[in-house]
Amino acid sequence: MPGTNVIVGGVAWRVEEATVEELVVRLILSRVWETVVSAPADGGTHLPAPDRIAAPTTLVVLDMPDLGIGRHDVPTLQIAACQAGAGWRPVPIEITSGGEVRTIASASAEAVIGTALTSLDDTGADVELADPEHWLESRDEAALMNGANLAAIGSELIQFASAIPIGPNQFRLSGLLRGCRGTEWAMDSHAPGEAFALIGPGILQEVLFPPLAIGTSVSVVPVLRSQR
Fold it and tell me: Structure pTM?
């Protein structure tokens, strides 16, 4: 009968059609393939990616008109940023000036920044870096002539030949070239606690302001966010 299974040579076949002609039974068969047996499956456990608290963002704001990275016909500030112990990606920064609030992204590269532990003078200064994974290196005279180890301490730009580790995240800078790029005026105005920033390609985000912003206060703060 159509629909029944028959075994031929140890193989299962399904009868599709059956006819009888002159006492001869003719069958049209189709192969019966083994079917996959359904089995209960474990639905698994949902493991959502946990929210991680964003690493604190440290900012250094510089007012350096002669860094050669942008326009000089309007007031500008340069912002360096880092996140200690976190894989770097640009962070949002909120800037408030003249009642206007805007959000920008930090520069593409993470900055090597920190704090001066001692007052900068001709003998040098001790600095502590914000990120324990960062490092400072000594450079020779030829490298300094090519602009190596340019850094801001407070409002003065310097170059340092020697960077000697003196403690966790701490370095003693010496062999200085001081008052670089027109910052001689700031050489006598240093104190412990000033911001330190190593100047290099891609680490400063320049922010432009209208001329009316000259002499006004500007607020620069990182925007908090969670990380996944």
Answer: 0.70
